[in-house]
Amino acid sequence: MLQARDLSVEVGGRLTLAGATFSLRAGDKVGLVGRNGTGKTSLLSVLAGHAPAAAGLVLRSDAVGYLSQDPRAKSIDREATALSYLLSGRGLDVAAQQLEAHRARIEDDPSDHNLVGFGRAEDAYRFAGGYSAEAEARRLAHGLGFPDDRIDLPLNALSGGERRRVELGSILFAGSELLLLDEPTNHLDTDAKQWLTTFLRSYRGALLIVSHDLDLLDEAITRVLHLDGAELTEYRGTYSQYVVARAGDEDRLRRTVARQQSEITRLRTLADRMRGQTVKRARTAKALDTRVARLERDAATGPRRRTRIKVRFPEPPRPGAVVLRADGVAKGYGGPPVFSDVTFDVGRGERLLIMGLNGAGKTSLMRILAGDADPDRGAVALGHGCSVGYYAQEHEGITAGSTVLAHLQDGAGGPTQELRSLLGTFALRGEIAFQDAGTLSGGEKTKLALAQLVVGRHNTLLLDEPTNNLDPPSRDAIGEALSQWPGAIVLVSHDAAFVARLQPDRVLLMPEGELDFWSDDLLELIGLA
């Protein structure tokens, strides 16, 4: 299904994988794990054939299903319906269009030639399962939590989370022999995650998955590839078994390094004592020096230190008592409104959580609040002294072709060293500052987008799924920083632990626009929304 031989991957001039050889066969369920920025997304892109390798060879099945962190559904025909995009996984959308074209020719000219053409097209469509495919596609979409009343809508009427589900559904519907999935549970509720876990567990092809969803990794995989320091290490078993095995390996490596360093120190000390004594001892000292040099050359290095992230959001400028107000806001996309007559305000330092199912208009409302979209009716007004920073779930504020550092310089300017120091607090260190932002992983893009909010000195933050693609240490550090920040926050999130850390004051239920005080009892609903 997949073979990689002496494979090397380079991102922005930085080697993220060197000389790796591994393979996947039918039935293999492999998790690719590692910290944000180690190169998991780049490796998956190379394996899928969407990016060139720096060196080595990749042999793959012709039938590959690849889910990237930036879904293709954002860039295809936005007038196409969600259902037709699902069917496109098997090419049945084109086959259906061709069948209808043959049918139209028969109506215009029922000649033998046109009848034969229609018969052949219909046979091909039937053989491909076309007549049963729509029901199958709808069942799959339902399993992924896609609302039945929205599958016939065009893609441009869907939320980012819904487009993500459509992209995943199209890949699964295609029936590929090899699945390469990058963060497939982003935007999925609890039921959809469970459905996907069950699907992947019973999948008979080869699977390579990148995910920070530890439950999914524990349930769906039987093997782990650990990527760190441009090296791949393989572990057999579930994710939990990998964690134990990895900790054991690191402990043994530390003991080995300690023994080697102790021996080097002992031999160097012994050689120093022999210098300047007899000729024989001087020769022995020289031999010991040679031995020490060989030991130092071949010495093992200890486990890479886990990068600690310590994020601090600066004290915000003080705004008026009310930072923003929405009055009778409504939005639709050519059909019935997604929401209407939504009215609320946000006070200075308040935390407001926006909750609702996928398609309820959460992201549309956030874009209106940020000034990136206009409401069909109603208005949004910012309060006195309000400065809004918007984190968009699809990283619209990050531009390919511009460096990481330039993104901060465009946002606020300031001394280069200070900006690089700020990037360092988000674990975007070293030469990453000069890397094309478009080549960053999803987790690194999230950190850059949050760093842009920091330099902006805003007092009101609009955060739309800010923990997507983040590894657990980064998620905890950013949650801790925001929990202590005194500015106002309007939040959309499926991450119950993150929401609990921020402790909302009120909740806005969409699409109804009902406003209520927050209760910890609502945490159980976060993963279902």
Entry keywords:
529 residues; alpha/beta; Rossmann fold; six-stranded mixed β-sheet; 17 helices; 18 strands; 21% strand
C-alpha-based Rg, rounded: 28 Å
- Tell the overall outline: globular
Oligomer: single chain
Mean pLDDT: 85
Question: Tally of extended strands?
Answer: 18
Uncertain regions: pLDDT < 50 for 5+ in a row? none
Secondary-structure-derived class:
alpha/beta
Beta-strand content estimate: 15-25%
Spatial ordering of strands, largest sheet: 5-6-7-3-8-9
CATH superfamily of the domain at 322-526: P-loop containing nucleotide triphosphate hydrolases
User: What kind of sheet is the major sheet?
Assistant: 6 strands, mixed
Structural write-up:
The protein has 529 residues and is α/β, with parallel strands linked by helices. Among the domains are: 100-127, no CATH class; 322-526, P-loop containing nucleotide triphosphate hydrolases (Rossmann fold, 3-Layer(aba) Sandwich), CATH 3.40.50. It has helices spanning 40-47, 82-87, 92-108, 112-127, 130-143, 160-173, 190-202, 214-220, 239-274, 279-298, 362-370, 404-411, 416-425, 442-455, 472-484, 496-502, 523-526; strands at 2-11, 14-24, 29-33, 55-60, 64-67, 178-182, 206-210, 223-228, 231-236, 322-332, 337-347, 351-355, 377-382, 388-391, 460-464, 488-492, 506-509, 514-517. The protein has a six-stranded mixed β-sheet, with helices on both faces. Strands 14-15-16-12-17-18 form a six-stranded mixed β-sheet, sandwiched between helices. Helix 5 crosses helix 6 (160-173), helix 9 runs antiparallel to helix 10 (279-298) and helix 12 (404-411) packs parallel to helix 14 (442-455). The longest helix is centred in the middle third of the chain and has 36 residues, at 239-274. The chain is globular and about 110 Å long. The mean pLDDT is 85.
